[in-house]
């Protein structure tokens, strides 16, 4: 299940401009003597997700986090969505089916793999436009661990909104054995850089001699 990725687009964002809080005087050593100055604090920007300009057709993103689906996950999701298919919560019933055991709710698999892709694909999304071509080639069972990757299929400017662009990706989910358990095509509106909502600015860093 190894596909080369584009290191220029699949790597975390660079540190960017750093904000330093310089200490005005050397910090005292534990025994009270004045020693070398405490290294300055450095604020580095974390991963902020991709904007429309950051995508390129053909990019492949191997999403970093896998997730083991437990029986509790399956039961709670089935209850939450009012799904009455006994195959997902009745072990006696499920044992009599061709699967022989409880099957993970397929819409849980869809939700999980979509969520796994957000860090790389839609952290800066304005809206999802649709999921198409959903395929479930292999069952998912309680205890399976799901991993995923996405491939950028298409990009185009929005005709009605200059602050966003349309991104199309195909996302694939795999279990721990490398079996493909789901695939789908997703279309979304991604903000252009500088046009999306921004979190509030944090307070300035304190003096490095008193911050630790």
TrEMBL record:
Entries under InterPro entries matching the protein: HotDog_dom_sf, MC_hydratase, MCH/BMMD
Superkingdom per UniProt: Bacteria
Disordered as annotated region, ranges: 1-40, 193-212
Composition bias, Low complexity: 1-14
Biased composition (Pro residues): 197-206
GO molecular function, one term: lyase activity
Protein name, per record: Transcriptional regulator
Organism encoding this protein: Frankia alni (strain DSM 45986 / CECT 9034 / ACN14a)
């Amino acid at each position: 299940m190894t596909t080369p990725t584009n290191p220029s687009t699949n790597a975390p964002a660079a540190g960017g401009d750093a904000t330093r809080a310089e200490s005005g005087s050397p910090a005292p050593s534990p025994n009270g003597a004045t020693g070398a100055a405490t290294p300055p604090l450095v604020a580095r920007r974390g991963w902020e997700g991709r904007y429309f300009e950051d995508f390129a057709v053909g990019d492949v993103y191997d999403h970093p986090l896998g997730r083991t689906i437990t029986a509790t996950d399956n039961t709670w999701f089935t209850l939450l969505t009012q799904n009455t298919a006994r195959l997902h919560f009745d072990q006696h019933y499920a044992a009599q089916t061709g699967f022989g055991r409880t099957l993970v709710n397929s819409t849980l698999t869809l939700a999980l793999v979509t969520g796994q892709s957000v860090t790389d694909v839609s952290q800066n999304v304005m809206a999802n436009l649709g999921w198409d071509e959903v395929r479930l080639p292999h069952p998912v069972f309680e205890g399976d661990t799901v991993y995923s990757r996405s491939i950028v299929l298409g990009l185009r400017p929005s005709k009605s909104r200059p602050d966003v662009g349309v991104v199309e990706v195909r996302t694939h989910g795999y279990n721990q054995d490398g079996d493909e358990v789901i695939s789908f095509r997703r279309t979304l509106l991604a903000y252009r850089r500088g046009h999306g909502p921004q979190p509030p600015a944090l307070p300035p860093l304190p003096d490095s001699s008193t911050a630790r």
